[in-house]
Amino acid sequence: MAGTFRFELVLPERLLFSEIVEEVILPGSEGYFTVMVNHLPMVTCVIPGVVRVKVMGQAEKVFIIYGGYADIASECCSLLVETVVLMDDLSLQDIERRIVKARAEFEKSSTVEQHNKAEDFLYQLTAIRNICCALV
Amino acid sequence: MASLKDLRNRIASIEVTRKMTKAMQMVAAAKLRHAQETASSARHYSQKMADILENISVDAVSEDMSCLMAGTGKNDTHLVVVCTSERGLCGGFNMQIARVARDFIGLRLTEGKIVKILTVGKKGADILKRDFNDLIIDHVDLRAAGKVDFASASAIASKVIAHFNADLFDVCTLVYSEFKSVTNRPPVCLQLIPLPATPVRDRSMNTTVSVVYEPDIASVLDELVSKNVSVQIFRALLENAAGEMSARMSAMDNATRNAGEMIHKLSIVYNRQRQTQITTDLIEIIAGAEAL
Fold first, then answer.
1. Are A79 and A9 in contact (CB under 8 A)?
2. What angle do CA A6, A10, A12 make, to 5 degrees?
3. Which residues does B155 contact at the CB level (< 8 Å), separation at least 6?
4. Are A77 and A43 in contact (CB under 8 A)?
5. Which of B67, B83, B90, B172 is an active site residue?
6. What is the pLDDT of residues B73-114, one digit of tens each?
7. Predicted TM-score of the model (pTM)
8. Residue B178 CB burial class (10 angstroms; 0-12, 13-18, ≥19)
9. Residues of B engaging A, defined by a Cβ cutoff of 8 Å
10. Are B55 and B203 contacting, i.e. CB atoms less than 8 angstroms apart?
11. ipTM of this complex > 0.85?
């Protein structure tokens, strides 16, 4: 049997999810990666994407996040995000709304840095939409 | 001397006021419970954020530090963010925060520093306008939002960071009321920018395994420190909300008690006056009967 560790999904308002899990797949800044027990201690920025959580003896839980941070230790993984949507509650209109907002930000960005950041965010949101369209 | 009718009206009026203050006290007690729960739930995020920042600050060298963490290197211009409530009827809650803010601003001004004020909440803005109207550069109204949420805190943080990036201040301090218990909510000044250095733990206490930062320590730190400003402001707003409700509850409890005492006193006066009038009437009747 695979080892287990505690996974916490923390919102600014509350602790949303805290359970013993087998593995978690996170959208890291360098690409998707899997966290299992005894993972190398790591702090990473996570980008908008899909989080898959494999809980012992239960169906896989899928969350959509819009960026945040992950603090990974050998026995615990904490994911700090501002907004999270459970895949079952996903609304494509919500993603479309965010894409429109991100596109407006992208168009009005003045500096190169802002422009690149807005472009990345828009690209990540579009990627989420494509993934969600495939999953739904 | 007030007539019996006047006294009756006054007692009835105070009775209505007592009912209102009692209702407000009960509403404040219910809201306080909710505000306390919200504040305690929100501690997970801020605690995690503080833990990550503490760990990073051990590993970070000065080149990795973001501007928000290291500051501008100067200490000439101060931005004071004063968080108060939007509504009154909560005793000296807003006045206490404003007093601490006023002392802090006064001290900086006597040191010859330039002070700018950003007010959050109508009541604090009204008080500070009397003394420092020309120093107030911006005001955030939370009435439209209705309740304290992270988006409101992020909007305030964005304003602060935009001012910092425009080189409008060197040091930013947040003034709010820290909620410790229902009776204890001292106003505090918390430095937001540059981030105060956390006591560096002994490196030998750390595990031998080094932490990996992705994409790199400077980027993670940069993102985290700017997010930390939002988190600290959010925490301040939540603590303020809990403090405001506890202050309102105490103030309304006092008001209810005072109204009860006043009704009691007025009832005694009313009864005495009524008795006097009855006695006078009786004497007049008896005197009239005897005259016949």
1. yes
2. 165
3. B140
4. no
5. B90
6. 888 899 999 999 998 999 899 999 999 999 999 999 999 999
7. 0.85
8. middle
9. 38, 41-42, 44-45, 48-49, 51-52, 55-56, 149-150, 153-154, 207, 209-215, 219-220, 223-224, 227, 230-231, 234
10. no
11. no
